[in-house]
């Protein structure tokens, strides 16, 4: 299935049973909620998907099961976050075998590669897969920035098609558009500045709180696309306290707790992560409960 790098693509959380096995029953409930809300793609095994804790066979199972669940309605992407070029190529090949439509790809893990090494890493994978690639540019969390100068070289490969723009600098949207036009599609990757990024011309949003609030997230995108900026702004202002749960170290626990409140997830995380406790838990619960009390009636927006 071809990938249009646009719209809302949830960075899906990985669901676990109490015994730490993959919980495909709850996973399917969440995927159905995303599809019913009108998302435009599914991204597996990212930061929210607890990628660093997943075994190779679990990643493969997630991909295979998700492809069956979506039944061709939307493309399914799997994240590549590996320590070696060899492992990244292997992961890309397995994703293709398992039916993924595309790849989201981080720079090398652990080793802080130079610009030249980073470019060669992406190029090596691009040469060894036919799948389209979205480069995940998140120097805040992963300490390596893919600059526009580096993209000049990377875009010589036709299957490097998009960037998940997570630098936190919204002016990069304009810089990328000015430099590359539509050659490099932009998926904003930071929930708290997604509204601004979409208004400035980002093509879509790889979202986090969408895991718990798919309808509201899709509504913001659709309203902006329709030019109804004020309506989208109203929803975004309501959403902001929740969106801020995505930009802290405990984002996985926060969003999984929100999924519990909206009935499409559980709190189970894979150790060393643990569910929220104490003051942090009380604070997040208050944010979620207060937001649910004032949840917007999307029917009035007639999207």
UniProtKB/TrEMBL annotation:
Q: Which InterPro entries match?
A: Aldolase_TIM, DapA-like
Active site location: 136, 164
One GO process term, biological-process aspect: N-acetylneuraminate catabolic process
**Gene3D superfamilies linked:** Aldolase class I
For pyruvate, which residues are the binding ones?
206
Regions annotated as coiled coil: none
UniProt keyword Lyase present? yes
The residues that cross the membrane are none
UniProt keyword terms in alphabetical order:
Lyase
Record Pfam families: DHDPS
One GO CC annotation, please?
cytosol
Q: Which GO terms describe its molecular function?
A: N-acetylneuraminate lyase activity
Belongs to which family?
Belongs to the DapA family.
What this protein is called in its record is Dihydrodipicolinate synthase family protein
Please name the source species: Aureibaculum marinum
Lineage summary: Bacteria, Pseudomonadati, Bacteroidota, Flavobacteriia, Flavobacteriales
């Amino acid at each position: 299935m071809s990938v249009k790098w646009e719209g809302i693509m949830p960075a899906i959380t990985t669901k676990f049973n109490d015994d730490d096995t993959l919980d495909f029953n709850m996973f399917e409930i969440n995927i159905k909620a995303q599809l019913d809300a009108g998302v435009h793609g599914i991204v597996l095994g990212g930061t929210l998907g607890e990628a660093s804790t997943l075994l190779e066979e679990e990643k493969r199972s997630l991909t295979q099961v998700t492809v069956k669940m979506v039944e061709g309605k939307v493309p399914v992407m799997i994240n590549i976050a590996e320590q070696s070029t060899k492992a990244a190529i292997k992961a890309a090949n397995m994703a293709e075998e398992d039916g993924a439509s595309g790849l989201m790809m981080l720079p090398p893990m652990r080793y802080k590669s130079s610009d030249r090494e980073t470019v060669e890493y992406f190029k090596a994978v691009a040469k060894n897969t036919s799948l389209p690639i979205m480069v995940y540019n998140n120097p805040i969390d992963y300490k390596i920035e893919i600059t526009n100068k580096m993209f000049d070289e990377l875009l010589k490969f036709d299957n490097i098609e998009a960037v998940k723009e997570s630098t936190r600098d919204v002016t990069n949207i304009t810089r990328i558009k000015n430099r590359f036009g539509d050659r490099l599609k932009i998926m904003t990757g930071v929930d708290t500045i997604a509204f601004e990024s979409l208004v400035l011309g980002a093509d879509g949003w790889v979202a986090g709180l969408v895991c718990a609030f798919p309808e509201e997230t899709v509504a913001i995108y659709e309203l902006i696309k329709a030019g109804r900026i004020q309506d989208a702004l109203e929803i975004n202002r309501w959403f902001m306290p929740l969106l801020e749960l995505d930009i802290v170290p405990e984002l996985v626990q926060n969003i999984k707790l929100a999924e519990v409140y909206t009935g499409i997830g559980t709190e189970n995380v894979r150790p060393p992560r643990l569910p929220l406790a104490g003051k942090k838990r009380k604070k997040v619960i208050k944010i979620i409960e207060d937001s649910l009390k004032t949840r917007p009636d999307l029917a009035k927006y007639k999207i």
